[in-house]
Amino acid sequence: MNTTDEIEISQSEWETMRVIWTLNGASSKQIIAILAEKLGWKASTTKTYLGRLVKKGALSTTKNGREYVYQPLIEEQVAMNNATSGLFDHLCQHKVGPTLTTLINNVELSQSDIEELINELNQKAKTAPEMVKCNCLPDGCDENCEMEEMK
Amino acid sequence: MNTTDEIEISQSEWETMRVIWTLNGASSKQIIAILAEKLGWKASTTKTYLGRLVKKGALSTTKNGREYVYQPLIEEQVAMNNATSGLFDHLCQHKVGPTLTTLINNVELSQSDIEELINELNQKAKTAPEMVKCNCLPDGCDENCEMEEMK
DNA sequence: TCCTTTCGTTTACAAATGTAATTTATACTT
DNA sequence: AAGTATAAATTACATTTGTAAACGAAAGGA
């Protein structure tokens, strides 16, 4: 089993990780200042999350003179992929398509992002089934889903 | 004005909602049986979630003779959209594209889902920027990313 | 009517989370 | 060296979540 996906990161911890990932490692002072400005967190609050993330193995910390520097131990893209997969595993497979459509409609994407996505989709189309069954019930819900099919 | 997005649904509660959504309303007996089979939950456990969901306003319950029937008070698609937005709001905007690519690679999509998505993407391409800035830091990270000085 | 089955409700309880003050160890200043 | 500023660690505490047993009310069978 991969150890990376074992690490659960809460919402607040995500916000903490984001600044460290973005700065590619940072001192507590920097992190505290940024989160105070961005989200209004008290220094103590940020320190708590920092401590928890170190304990969880998501961050490493090294003392550099008086400063403590935090480095990510997990990659942002990997963590993001785990988080999204984790969420989508709890959603009705049958409705993932429409959900993605809405999602894509709501996020910002660059030209190259879009190009990449379309590529991926064209690839996927080659072997995609005519229909995806929902997996909300133990046996599948073919009949039930069909009924809701008209929208 | 929409009350729907106020409701927070935990992972376990999601699993509970899924069966009710899929069955388009169900009796506690059914729900308990299904979740016992699918996830090995004890009857008490399912009852707890049912109770919490009713209190949260995600479900309504009506006594029908000896049976209690639970009906969803929020739409599955709406809830799914809220959940995904909620997650993506905590992710680096700059990396949303690659994350979506991986996600799409990992989920099952039907031919029509794919068609729909490609449509949406083509639409989006018309006004998409060349590049998406990350919003992990208060000011955006274009400059900050390289900024390791200052103390 | 009395008992037993069956629900929903109440209570339980540990772990995780959000949020932060207090304490302790330590490096810097005088 | 003593005092001060500072950073991490410890402690705090209410909520939420996962998981479930126990309790009380109601309905159906005897």
Could you characterize the architecture of this molecule?
Chains A, B: Belongs to the BlaI transcriptional regulatory family. Chains A, B: GO terms for molecular function: DNA binding. 2 copies of one chain form a homodimer. Chain A is mainly α and 151 residues long. The first copy, chain A, folds into 2 domains: 69 residues, Arc Repressor Mutant, subunit A, CATH 1.10.10.10; 58 residues, no CATH class. Chain A is built from 7 helices and 3 strands, in the order H-E-H-H-E-E-H-H-H-H. Chain A has a 3-stranded antiparallel β-sheet. Chain A starts with 10 loop residues before the first helix and ends with a helix. In chain A, 35% of the residues are buried. The C terminus of chain A is likely disordered. Chain B binds a DNA duplex (30 and 30 nucleotides) through helix 1 and helix 3.
Condensed summary:
The structure is a homodimer of 151-residue chains. Chain A has helices at 11-23, 28-39, 43-56, 76-88, 96-106, 111-125, 142-148, and strands spanning 26-27, 59-64, 67-72.
Q: Can you lay out the helices and strands and say which pair or pack?
A:
The structure is a homodimer of 151-residue chains.
Chain A: H1 11-23, E1 26-27, H2 28-39, H3 43-56, E2 59-64, E3 67-72, H4 76-88, H5 96-106, H6 111-125, H7 142-148
Antiparallel strand pairs in A: 1-3, 2-3
The structure holds a DNA duplex (30 and 30 nucleotides).
Question: Tell me, what's the shape of chain A?
Answer: elongated
How many structural domains in the coordinates of chain A? 2
Mean pLDDT of chain A: 88
Query: How many distinct helices of chain A?
Result: 7
Measured distance between first and last alpha carbons of chain A: 41 Å
Secondary-structure-derived class of chain A: mainly alpha
Looking at the structure, the CATH topology of the largest domain in chain A is: Arc Repressor Mutant, subunit A
Oligomer: homodimer
Low-confidence stretches of chain A: 140-151
Read across the widest sheet of chain A, the strand sequence of neighbours is 1-3-2
- Which CATH architecture of the largest domain in chain A? Orthogonal Bundle
